[in-house]
């Protein structure tokens, strides 16, 4: 089942990201240099009373528009109107695909025209809206502070994103809207085909589903218009996530799909392996990098598909795969573990190769290495390079052990936690992968402090 999406909406500086951080679980031990992730963490996993959902901070979109304006050398203020229009557009693309919206306001500044503007837009969408008034630190002045907002004629939630006042109440009301029960686990591998518009996703999906060896059946989504397809390839079954939308588009040849961050996000969250489709002729652009960044930070299995290879082949017949990989990994430096495939969806070249690769990635993702082998690996790795000294002391790594699969996670025990820097973890990962490639699978290290 698809996870529900809760989007936090509001003017700049009302406290959206503070609330977001309160709701979202921290996903990464180490903040990585990944496109679309470093600038702002747009979304996170959340759980309350055993109900899981995704929370999105639309403030991230605002800051992005701001950054874009700035990078063009234009001061943000002079472009205020244009800026606001752009922000509203971005935010509402997000809202369209969220299930629940938290409209956040600010008790300190009171109800402002832009709040009204946002609410006016919000009400056009048929979403459940929670109106939260932030910066109310306790019951004392609550009703005075809320005064301004009663004119909205809606139920209000007085909260302090900072100190947590009113937070539990808000969360309880929100999760009451979510469907009950455990997440269903599909018995078949789930594949999401993602990529920016026009790279050939729908051509690929239609080619896969019309291929003779495929048997296709549809599973209607439970809550929304998402329809997954089951296809089988050499007697093995696979689920193609959210194929209805993609296929439909394919029938309206030449229309350019609007890129939807939420849909991409939801499909990534929902899959075991994401296949990112790129246009090999056009090359890898920023939006491609950001989609890859989403897949990486969701810690999913992944393969890189360079589509429209028929066009490249004609123009550069001597281009070899190693050279191509180097070019790809230069753009996707955080995803060097992903296998690269050249395909042509249009002429159906090599497209069924995807299935064995998906199988391999899933097998790798659930691979477990025993502690003894891991520690032999650790000894060798340390003998090549020790972590650098930290605060004048040697940094020792005592041992390493695999604590999880899907994706694989490893804990290392050290005498100085702060002494293990990201750079060393990168080195460790590189060494690990040369011994056990974990192709198409992100691996994660957790560092723990331990007295010997
Ligand atoms: P989507 O937006 O990612 O679903 O992209 P589409 O599947 O609609 O494809 C966009 C355009 O690229 C269409 O005109 C397709 O015919 C074309 N296209 C897709 N795959 C290939 C391919 O492998 N080779 C070539 N030459 N064109 C392709």
Task: Outline the structure in words.
The protein is of the alpha/beta class and 452 residues long. Helices cover 35% and strands 21% of the residues. It has helices at 16-23, 59-71, 80-96, 113-122, 142-146, 167-175, 201-210, 243-251, 261-269, 286-297, 309-315, 321-331, 354-365, 371-384, 422-435, and strands spanning 4-10, 43-48, 51-57, 100-106, 128-134, 156-158, 190-194, 216-220, 227-233, 236-240, 273-279, 301-307, 340-342, 397-404, 409-414, 444-449. A seven-stranded mixed sheet has the order 8-9-10-7-11-12-13, with helices on both faces. Strands 2-3-1-4-5-6 form a six-stranded mixed sheet, with helices on both faces. Strand 11 (273-279), helix 10 and strand 12 (301-307) form a beta-alpha-beta unit. Helix 2 runs antiparallel to helix 3 and helix 7 (201-210) packs across helix 8 (243-251). The longest helix is centred in the first third of the chain and has 17 residues, at 80-96. The radius of gyration is 24 Å and the shape is globular. The site of guanosine-5'-diphosphate (GDP) has 19 residues, from helix 7, helix 8 and helix 11.
Summarize the structure.
With 452 residues, this protein is of the alpha/beta class. The protein has helices at residues 16-23, 59-71, 80-96, 113-122, 142-146, 167-175, 201-210, 243-251, 261-269, 286-297, 309-315, 321-331, 354-365, 371-384, 422-435, and strands at residues 4-10, 43-48, 51-57, 100-106, 128-134, 156-158, 190-194, 216-220, 227-233, 236-240, 273-279, 301-307, 340-342, 397-404, 409-414, 444-449.
